[in-house]
Write a structure and sequence with these properties.
With about 210 residues, the protein is α/β, with parallel strands linked by helices. About 45% of the residues lie in helices and about 15% in strands. The structure holds 2-keto 3 deoxy 6 phospho gluconate (ELE). Belongs to the KHG/KDPG aldolase family.
Length: about 210
C-alpha cells in the first residue's frame, strides 16, 4: 500500500465520527461490550493501544463487533505492525514516525495514521505521501492554536489531534480547517470500564459523536 493510499483510507476512517476513542484495555472480557457500547453510541472507529498485555486479544475480540472499525495504537516497531495486523487491526496509529515503521506498514498493507508534533515532522511525512497525520501529544505540543498556525503554510495536511483532548477543548480542535477528527480516552474511563458501565459509556460516546465539526 502506498502512503497516498494509506492516507486515503485513514481519511475515510477519520471521517466516520468526530472522535476516535483511544482505548487502554486490561481485560479481554471487557473488549466486546466496550466496543459494542462505543459503536452503539456512534463512534465506530476504535484505537486499541498496544499498551497492555491483553491488547492483541482485545483487538481480535473487538474486530467481531458489527459496525466497528478496529485499529491498533502505539505502533512503535515493525514487530508491532505484524502483531497488530495478525490480530485483525484494519488500521494503525503511531505516536511518531520512523522510516522502519512506515516501511513495515506500507509492506503489510496496514493504513497508518502516523504521528507528528512539529512542522518539520509533518512536512517529512507529507513528502513521503502521508496527508493525514496524528498530531501528538496535542495539548502538550501546542494545542489547537499551534495546529491552527500550521493550517496556512501546510494547507494540504490534515490532522487527528490526540493527547489531552477532552470535552472542554474538543470543539476548539474540531472547528479548525485542518482537523478531520480527534482522538481521546475520555469516552472510556477506566472506572466505567472496570465496573462494566456500558450504558454510561454509550452515553459518553453519543455526546462525543454529536460534537460539531
Ligand atoms: O498510546 C498511544 O499511542 C497514544 O495514542 C497515546 C494517546 O494519544 C493518549 O493516551 C491519549 O490519551 P488522552 O490524552 O487520555 O486522551
Amino acid at each position: 500500500m502506498t502512503p497516498t493510499e494509506a492516507s486515503e483510507k485513514a481519511l475515510e476512517i477519520c471521517q466516520l465520527a468526530p472522535i476516535v476513542p483511544v482505548l487502554v484495555v486490561e481485560d479481554v472480557a471487557h473488549a466486546g461490550p466496550l466496543a459494542a457500547a462505543l459503536v452503539a453510541g456512534g463512534l465506530p472507529a476504535l484505537e486499541v493501544t498496544l499498551r497492555t498485555d491483553a491488547a492483541l486479544e482485545v483487538i481480535a475480540e473487538m474486530a467481531r463487533i458489527e459496525g466497528g472499525v478496529v485499529g491498533a495504537g502505539t505502533l512503535l516497531t515493525p514487530e508491532d505492525v505484524k502483531r497488530a495486523k495478525d490480530a485483525g487491526a484494519t488500521f494503525g496509529v503511531s505516536p511518531g514516525a520512523t522510516d522502519r515503521l512506515l516501511d513495515a506498514c506500507e509492506e503489510a498493507d496496514l493504513p497508518l495514521l502516523p504521528g507528528a508534533a512539529t512542522a518539520s515532522e509533518a512536512m517529512r511525512l507529507f513528502e513521503r505521501g502521508y496527508t493525514v497525520q496524528k498530531f501528538f501529544p496535542a495539548e502538550a505540543a501546542g494545542g489547537a492554536s499551534f495546529l491552527k498556525s500550521l493550517s496556512s503554510p501546510l494547507p494540504l495536511i490534515r490532522f487527528c489531534p490526540t493527547g489531552g483532548v477532552s470535552p472542554k477543548n474538543a470543539r476548539d480542535y474540531l472547528s479548525l480547517p485542518n482537523v478531520v477528527c480527534a482522538g481521546g480516552s475520555w469516552v472510556a474511563p477506566k472506572e466505567m470500564v472496570a465496573s462494566g458501565d456500558w450504558a454510561g459509556i454509550e452515553r459518553l460516546a453519543a455526546e462525543a459523536a454529536a460534537l460539531p465539526r
